[in-house]
Design a protein that fits this description.
Keywords: Metal-binding, Signal. It comes from Comamonas jiangduensis. Residues 1-23 form the signal peptide. With 251 residues, this protein is α/β, with parallel strands linked by helices. The protein folds into two domains: 5-103 and 212-246, Periplasmic binding protein-like II (D-Maltodextrin-Binding Protein, domain 2, 3-Layer(aba) Sandwich), CATH 3.40.190.10; 106-203, D-Maltodextrin-Binding Protein, domain 2 (3-Layer(aba) Sandwich). The protein has eleven helices and twelve strands. The chain has helices at 5-22, 35-49, 60-68, 82-89, 122-125, 140-152, 155-158, 168-176, 187-190, 226-235, 238-246, and strands at 25-31, 52-58, 75-77, 99-104, 106-110, 131-134, 162-165, 182-186, 191-192, 195-196, 200-203, 212-218. Strands 2-1-3-12-4 form a five-stranded mixed β-sheet, sandwiched between helices. Strands 7-6-8-5-11 form a five-stranded mixed β-sheet. The longest helix is centred in the first third of the chain and has 18 residues, at 5-22. The protein is globular.
């Protein structure tokens, strides 16, 4: 059937308008350790779906407090699995939306090449002034660092040398700027495309601390939000998982 060119232009415009009308935006609270991969994922998500994810980064414990006080986040990408479970049990989130989007890995890292050995024996030498660690009461990576030092029998010895970050992002900055010679940080912060970007690191064996299972949950404010549903589906997809894996996470 012949369609006049003016009609074709109108039909295309209408189709584009309809697609835009169905696009939605969701506000996402993202654990600080997941900053780099989530920035990449959000960009791909917008290109592939038309939806937009507005990202805020910080400590899981602080996000929980904000959510409890009515902060209008639509999704929480937590640094642990207990906070989303608590949110679900308190009726603040959609219980059956919860899933583990990544399993984090802890590293002892220095910006100096060759400073950290592959077994982490540098911790036993005591030849350093400061070790950066995230607040273990707010950040699961900080708790994992404390558990690691306890396993090594070094916690009380090293505790006076702690430089404590509010979250793992601030902790990384302490180590990256040299304010601390060493830092217990997320592998994702120092790895890209499967390799350490700079400096030296010890990958902490996973049996030295509780698993860092990072769960996502849709909050009640976004239970009917199309972008929230689309993003949760996208995080399970091959493209997002390839990005997540490239930063050293497991599943």
């Amino acid at each position: 059937m012949f369609i006049p060119s003016c009609w074709r232009t109108s039909l295309i415009a209408a189709a584009l308008w309809a697609g835009a009308a169905h696009a939605d935006t969701v506000s996402v609270a993202v654990a600080a350790n997941f900053t780099a991969p989530m920035q990449k994922i959000a960009a791909e998500f917008a290109k592939d779906t038309g939806h937009k994810a507005e990202l805020s980064f910080g400590a899981t414990g602080k996000f929980y407090a904000q959510i409890s006080n009515g902060a209008p986040f639509g999704i929480l990408l937590s640094a642990d699995d207990t906070t989303p479970a608590k949110i679900a049990s308190e009726g603040k989130g959609v219980a059956d939306s919860r899933f583990t989007y990544a399993v984090g890995k802890l590293v002892l890292w220095s910006k100096q090449d060759g400073y950290v050995d592959a077994q982490g024996a540098v911790l036993k030498t005591g030849k350093f002034q400061h070790v950066a660690i995230a607040n273990p009461k707010l950040a699961p990576y900080g708790l994992a660092a404390e558990q690691t030092l306890t396993q090594l029998g070094l916690l009380e010895q090293i505790k006076p040398k702690f430089v404590q970050g509010e979250n793992i992002g601030q902790t990384y900055q302490f180590a990256a700027t040299g304010n601390a010679e060493l830092g217990f940080v997320a592998l994702s912060q120092v790895m890209e495309d499967g390799k350490i970007k700079s400096g030296s690191a010890w990958l902490v064996p996973s049996n030295m601390h509780e698993p860092i299972r990072q769960d996502a949950i849709v909050l009640n404010t976004a239970k009917d939000n199309a972008a929230a549903k689309a993003l949760m589906d996208y995080l399970r997809g091959d493209k997002a998982r390839a990005i997540i894996t490239s930063y050293g996470y497991a599943f």
